[in-house]
Structure formats: structure tokens, C-alpha cells
Amino acid sequence: MNNDIFPCLWYNDDGKQSAEFYCKIFGGAITADTPVVLNIDLFGQKFMLLNGGPYFEKNASVSFMVMCETEEEIQNYWDQLESGGVALMPLDSYPWSKKYGWIRDKFGVTWQLNLNENIGNQKIIPTLMFIHDNNGKAMEAMELYTKIFPGSKIGNVLKYGDGVGEENHEIPENIQHAHFEISGYSLFCMDNSYDHQFDFNEAISMVVMTNDQEETDRLWNSLTSDGGTESRCGWLKDKFGFSWQIVPKKLIQLMSDPDQEKAQKVVQAMMKMQKIVIADLEEAYSS
């Protein structure tokens, strides 16, 4: 599994409580603990929690599918996530799963718990919901992402016409559920016609750690082309409005320097950038 790609969840100063909550539920560990950034490990997967302030609220356009091996495991997670949370689809038996539930926890993160004995090496799989102007574009998004990232592939694809059909007012050729991988990291996606009161925003993004400037430039240019938008500090939105952070590993190395003055110069330089430029970080570090 590729831990150079991982989700980032945005918080308004309650990231630490959320980190402790998830580590307790899923048996994880906090691996980095600062006032702004926390990293946690859940089942060998990295998650970043960012105390960024009251600017963005997490919503169900990006949820996290937890692949569970037993009904008891699902029930255990559900009972804990339900504390202060809201069930979006009750824990029950459905045509596609013997045991399944969709829930928003007290921190605004949504989880899909699914019984699947044939779990791979990635137990938690981010799931992107393509709605409103993006409805019907899940296949286009998968094709774009798998083209951009090396070592990628589209897996199983279930269209509404193959399964639920038109009784849910969904277009038959749209994606009901699909699996794809980018550089070995698994994601799910789906189209949905319901007029949800939310859409993709910066509250849930994907971080990609890059090895050099060439990789940084290629990913940045590919994801911002054809309707994407550049933001600051390595953040961007692709043409579907989904947020990515393209972060050179060198940035983390320089920011972690024990010489606080040097590290702070790097942070100050990074704050002025859109795309991260490694040479400019190194110049700031050495100045």
C-alpha cells in the first residue's frame, strides 16, 4: 500500500480529540502531534488531521468505506461512531451487502461500514461522490486520475443499469459503485443524482508526497489543467472541484530541521507559494 498518498481532514481546533477518538475505535496510533498537524495510523494507513480553523466543514461527498470481516466488527465500530453521530443509512442488510451502514460521526466525518470477507491490504477506502454538475463524471474522473498517476488501474465498475435501476431515479449508465487505484492506493467512487446540500470542498483532500520537482510539476500541471484551479501552499482543485495537496518530501525534511530559525524561513517561503518550488525552499533555508 502506498503511504505517500493519504487523506487530510480539516478541523476547527478539535483535531486532537478526533485523532484520539479514531485511534480508540480502530486501534490506531497518533504518529505526529503538533498544534496544527496530527498524523494517525489506522490499520497501517496514514491520515493527516489539520487544525486549520472554521473555514470548511466536512461532508459526505467524501466518505470512508471500512471493509469489515465480521458482523461483530461492524457492530463494534458502529456503536462507537454512533455516539454523538447521525445514521445516514441504518445498519442493516441490503441487496449489495449482508451488513452495511453509513454514518456521520460527531466530528462530521462520514463512514460506510461494509461486510466484506475478501478485504485486501487497504482496510479504509476513501469514497468520492460525484453530484450536481459532477453527476455522471465518475468514470471521467477515474480515467483522468489513473492516467495521471503511474501504477494505476480501474477495477470493478457497477453501473446503475446493472444493479439498482431506474427506481432510484438514477441514470442507467452512471456509476453506482466503482473501484480504482492511483499508484497502488485504493479509492471508490460513485455518481449520485440526489440534490445534496453539499459538494467537494477543502475539508477533505488527498495529499500526495512527491520525490522531486519533476514529479511535483507533472502532478500539479496535470491536475490543474482543463478547469482546475491553483491555490496556496501546495493546494489545488482539479476540474471536478476535488482538493489535492502536492507536497515534496523535501519540504517536510526542511521544515523538520532542528534549527528553528532555518525551519521557520522555509515555512515563510512556502506560505508565499502556490505550487511548491523546492529550489526556492532550499534558498530560503540557506539564507
UniProtKB/TrEMBL annotation:
Source taxonomy = Bacteria, Pseudomonadati, Bacteroidota, Flavobacteriia, Flavobacteriales
**Which protein are we looking at?**
VOC family protein
Q: What organism, scientifically named, is this protein from?
A: Chryseobacterium gilvum
Start and end residues of each PhnB-like domain: 4-113, 122-247
